[in-house]
Amino acid sequence: MEFYRSHVLVCAGTGCTSSDSQLVRRELLKQLAEKGLDKEIKVVETGCFGFCNLGPIMVVYPEGTFYCQVKPQDVNEIVEEHFIKGRPVQRLLYHEPDKETRTLEFDNIEFFRHQKRVALANCGHINPEVIEEYIARDGYFALARVLHEMTPQEVIDVIKKSGLRGRGGGGFPTGVKWEFASKSQGDQKYVVCNADEGDPGAFMDRSVLEGDPHAVLEAMAIAGYAIGANQGYIYVRAEYPIAVERLQTAIKQARELGLLGKNIFSKGFDFDIDIRLGAGAFVCGEETALLTSIEGRRGEPRPRPPFPAVAGLWGKPTIINNVETFANVPPIIRNGWEWFASMGTEKSKGTKVFALAGKINNTGLIEVPMGTTLRTIIYDIGGGIPKGKKFKAAQTGGPSGGCIPAELLDIEIDYDNLTAIGSMMGSGGLIVMDEDNCMVDIARFFLEFTQDESCGKCPPCRIGTKRMLEILTRITEGKGTPEDLTNLETLAKTIKNASLCGLGQTAPNPVLSTLRYFRHEYEAHIYDKKCPAGVCQALLTYKILAEKCRGCGLCARNCPTNAISGKVKEPYVIDVEKCIKCGACLEKCKFAAVIKE
Amino acid sequence: MSCQCQCNAGNEPGIYTIIDQIVEKYKGQAGSLIPVLHQTQQALGYLPENVQAYIAEKLGIPLSEVYGVVSFYTLFSTVPKGKYKISVCLGTACYVKGAGDILAEFEKQLKIKVGETTEDGMFTLEACRCLGACGLAPVLTVNDNVHGRLTAQDVADIVKKYAEDK
Ligand SMILES: Cc1cc2nc3c(=O)[nH]c(=O)nc-3n(C[C@H](O)[C@H](O)[C@H](O)COP(=O)(O)O)c2cc1C
Ligand code: SF4
Ligand code: SF4
Ligand code: SF4
Ligand code: FES
Ligand code: FES
User: Fold this and answer.
1) What value does the mean pLDDT take over residues A208-236?
2) Structural domain count, chain B
3) pTM of the prediction?
4) Structural domain for A548, as ranges
5) Most buried by CB count within 10 Å: which residue of A384, A539, A569, A584?
6) CATH code of A83's domain
7) Domain with B128 in it: what CATH number?
8) Are residues A273 and A304 in the same domain?
9) Which pLDDT tens digit goes with each residue over A128-141?
10) How far apart, in whole angstroms, are the C-alpha atoms of residue A293 and residue A397?
11) Which residues contact A197 (CB under 8 A, 6 or more apart)?
């Protein structure tokens, strides 16, 4: 076997790829070859480390040196200094936002220190395109154990006892779902993986698929054994080309090694997996819609019951689980349900992956034990809010969820606590908002999304969300009336109660939760005709502060509507009638004399 | 309907031949309509009515069903797209970081509205929901290239870069 003194992991996830990590990798390979180091140092492409904001990411083992924002022109220095002279390149090391010093090792970085990686255990550690690397980290061992030592019912019992709940949003106990499907009668059953990841602002599933695709394949085969299915489908968004490619490679490799296909581990168990691509419809993430879409039809939800476990794909018993749910299965089988159940809270076991984004210093992917507080996530892991701004809210659960205000920062995150405060776990999008975000505008944003994505099958959702959006738009334009707030609440109730599928049933949540915690912002828009955050264009007026204005005239020359007038060296003024609120004056003024309020 | 295309004059396969090849791959498989539409769109860029009709015939399903599916899914298009498809992400992470301003800047610079194509056929401007690169928000793609950490100031450079790349 070849022996390398160092391994260099270069991130090839979507984030880093778009910051040109491939150029860095190619440059590195070239220079290592030129220096004759290519037999000593091995370059490995990995999936996402979770720290995409600082990409391209490079980690050098055995030391665990963590380099960030590596550019092709930095490669020479890394090779000369680190690989030849053994001196890590200080300037490329990670720098904690509030500290002077740079951190050498990966494990000591605050962002990683508070995390506990189960579903993401392999992401960033293995080359997802080489099945042997997965196997070297105990991959397919769980499938082997299941086939050799366990009955299907034993598998179901272990998953049930582990307390694993669905990570796709609903939080339904996975083992119970499997048991339903295993008890359903059918000549043919199916296992479906939901990789549609529709929550706009979340990329947990994408990273698992890109960084550790075999974990999902292995888990699907285990599920197939448990319920008696021999065919699986992965329904993945077409917007995720890298994930699709890695899955295709993974499936091919698994087939070649006999880990998928006929008579796996010579135990008489057949299981194979095919990929189906989505085509840009959010509602297809809903399980019944997803199944209809795989069948090749318009992805409209249908009433449940019958549940898919009884009549799913082509009318056959089917289980459908989320990517992250599946990624937890092999570690549970390997380490035992006790291990998994020892993490988390009473009713939510294990860990949860969150995509941390928005107004936060460390954006990226994190995995923490259930029950971690929002404060730990935002301040310790996320490094707080940029530019010294004030935290306003965290949004979880995507278009089905709600906004959590600062008063609730110490809440322990699990399924039930989030539901209790009017939000939702959702699939794991966690978007941080600061004082510059307007909560009415955010509510409007989500309603626009759900209104647009409503499949139109049932009127409460189709028409109701449209009415709500109209009201919200009116409020953001300063045309809201006091009755609007009660109308929003009444509409919300009707839509929640009368819609067929989860999309409609949860669509009002962003409005309800902002009304609950940020009612004063709605009121400011309605009564004072003001947007406190300065976001809603129609409610802003641009003004020149006479005491600060030096009369340079720069603003007037840049105003597209000639709304600014004045004499040189004297304060200029804006004619609000003519102003179209383009913001050019504010941007151009060198003396901060232009304000919007 | 028989093949009406005239592009088969040379040895180049015409669009119907391409579709035949695609359909052949999925022969006998249930639920093949969406994969066939995906691959056809990839080959032709869009799915005009005659193409939908041909697919319906080949798969033995009513045209209305094909049309129903094409119109349901936003990724399928019945009109041709520009050489460069600019997709500005309006997912939540990008939105809170000012993606709306970036989209507005493109509309201004390209003088088209979202969903439209420039007259010279160079650019189509679209909005999309989350590309999964939220860590780099705000983000957009031009065809398959992802650009991240954008500001409205970057818009002019992006347009220029691709416009020169005729
Ligand atoms: C409108 C809507 C969109 C959904 N989108 C997704 C999605 O993108 N990914 C996902 O895993 N589950 C999604 N779900 C939840 C699925 O219906 C289903 O509950 C889930 O895939 C079950 O897997 P789990 O038990 O492992 O979570 C969505 C539900 C609704 C109502
Ligand atoms: S609730 Fe909305 S998305 Fe769901 S079936 Fe009804 S119209 Fe369609
Ligand atoms: S640019 Fe600023 S300082 Fe100059 S005239 Fe305008 S407001 Fe006054
Ligand atoms: S915001 Fe625009 S239109 Fe209004 S005064 Fe300033 S430059 Fe003129
Ligand atoms: S894609 Fe490289 S760290 Fe996320
Ligand atoms: S929200 Fe824009 S990439 Fe995710």
Assistant:
1) 97
2) 2
3) 0.90
4) 541-596
5) A539
6) 3.40.30.10
7) 3.40.30.10
8) yes
9) 999 999 999 999 99
10) 23
11) A203, A204, A205, A206, A237, A240, A285, A323, A427, B130, B132
Residue after which a domain boundary falls, among B48, B72, B96 = B72
Specify the 3-state DSSP secondary structure of A236.
strand
pLDDT-derived band at A480 (thresholds 50, 70, 90) equals very high
Give tens-digit pLDDT for A532-587: 998 888 888 899 999 999 999 999 999 988 999 999 889 999 998 899 888 889 98
Q: Residue A538 carries which DSSP code?
A: G
CATH of the domain at A586: 3.30.70.20
A361 touches chain B (CB under 8 A): no
Q: How far is the CA of A50 from the centre of ligand 5 (A)?
A: 5
Q: Which 444-483 residues of chain A touch chain B by CB within 8 A? A: 445-446, 449, 455
* Strand A261-264, strand A269-277: pairing: antiparallel
Which ligand is in closest contact with the Cα of A456?
2
Residue the block writes with tokens 């040196």 = A65
Does the residue A197 lie in any domain? yes
Beta-carbon separation of A358 and B69 below 8 A: no
Q: ipTM of the assembly?
A: 0.85
CB A432 within 8 A of CB A466: no
A225 in the same domain as A140: yes
* pLDDT in the model for residue A490: 95
**Chain B contacts of A14, Cβ < 8 Å?**
131-133, 146
Q: Please check whether residue B76 touches A, CB under 8 A.
A: yes
- Site to probe by mutation for ligand 5, drawn from A24, A49, A94, A125 as the one with most ligand atoms within 8 Å of Cβ, is A49
Confidence of residue B7 (pLDDT cuts 50, 70, 90): very low
Q: Distance between CA B154 and CA A487 in Å, rounded?
A: 42
Q: What is the mean pLDDT of chain A?
A: 93
Q: What is the average per-residue pLDDT within A328-352?
A: 96
Number of domains forming the structure of chain A? 5
Same domain, A179 and A49: no
> Distance, CA A453 to ligand 2 centroid (Å)?
9
A410 and A457 within one domain: no
Nearest to A52 among B32, B92, B135 (CB): B135
Q: What is the pLDDT of residues A455-470, one digit of tens each?
A: 999 999 999 999 999 9
pLDDT class of A76 with cuts at 50, 70, 90: very high
Residue pair A353/A344 in contact (Cβ under 8 Å)? The answer is: no
For A169-185, what is the mean pLDDT?
95
Neighbours of A444 (CB within 10 A): 23
A87 pLDDT above the threshold of 60: yes
Whether A141 contacts A317, CB under 8 Å: no
On chain A, the residues whose CB falls within 8 A of the CB of B73 are 278-281, 299
**Which pLDDT belongs to residue A202?**
87
Q: Are A393 and A142 in contact (CB under 8 A)?
A: no
- H helical segments located in A201-310: 204-211, 213-227, 241-256, 287-294
Decide if B92 and A445 are in contact by the 8 Å CB cutoff: yes
Q: Residues of chain A with pLDDT > 70: what percent?
A: 99
Residue B31 lies in domain: 14-72
Whether A280 lines ligand 4, by a CB cut-off of 6 Å, is: no
- Report the pLDDT value the prediction gives residue B5, as an integer from 0 to 100: 45
Does B131 map to a domain?
A: yes
